[in-house]
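Researcher: Dear colleague, please comment on this protein.
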Amino acid sequence: KTNLIVNYLPQNMTQEELKSLFGSIGEIESCKLVRDKITGQSLGYGFVNYVDPKDAEKAINTLNGLRLQTKTIKVSYARPSSASIRDANLYVSGLPKTMTQKELEQLFSQYGRIITSRILVDQVTGVSRGVGFIRFDKRIEAEEAIKGLNGQKPPGATEPITVKFANNPSQKTNQAILSHLYHSPNRRYPAPLAQQAQRFRFPPMTIDGMTSLAGINIPGHAGTGWCIFVYNLAPDADESILWQMFGPFGAVTNVKVIRDFNTNKCKGFGFVTMTNYDEAAMAIASLNGYRLGDRVLQVSFKTNKTHK
């Protein structure tokens, strides 16, 4: 009972500020502000672990509901990680450009308790990209939201939205979901997701071993899919960055960072293969011009002219 989760922090609040705010209550063992792995931006929540459970309880009583800038922070006990809460993060696309984060939360809150939400905006114009993320308290709530909202038109929208689990390439569970979609006799998911699964077009052998998701090209399977060229990567860029950037847009079969033979540093470019043309085009439209650290990426379909 010493570990707290703090939600709805102001975007510009630093880990040091979080620590000094909660350190005023009692001695802190550790404090972590959670940031986006790629952009380094605060995701608006963090964890504070006290030495003494009494201080944790006092912090909840004292600081929960505190207004900081435009936000009202929420302080509660952090739950121990368990299977029921893992992978409850949804990727939502096709949102009306006018929809606010608050409206997004209202739409999804009928399915369960929302831990965090965000809408991606164009970094230059500040306009919504029509894409967002919702993290639920429990995985089962996220599944219900997919059933209820995927392929539906939210109020005021002209197009239906797509709701699916946000990809995290390092997690076996995505692969389990995929195999489940293929092998379960009574597909638990409504048609849109089942149709989506068919768009992954992996030959059956790869679904069982899932080798293609691990970024290994299956002999005879090379050449299928759409190859995307990513230019202006930093020297220390690695494959995981490409997985994280492209994973949310759809099925990625392979990523490759081109390295200098002598130094093993990235030469500034890499390739990503995606199975579905629409998803690849969406990824290019969203990520071309994306600022990664201090570099602006150029992302395009690979043509035969680009680096071999």
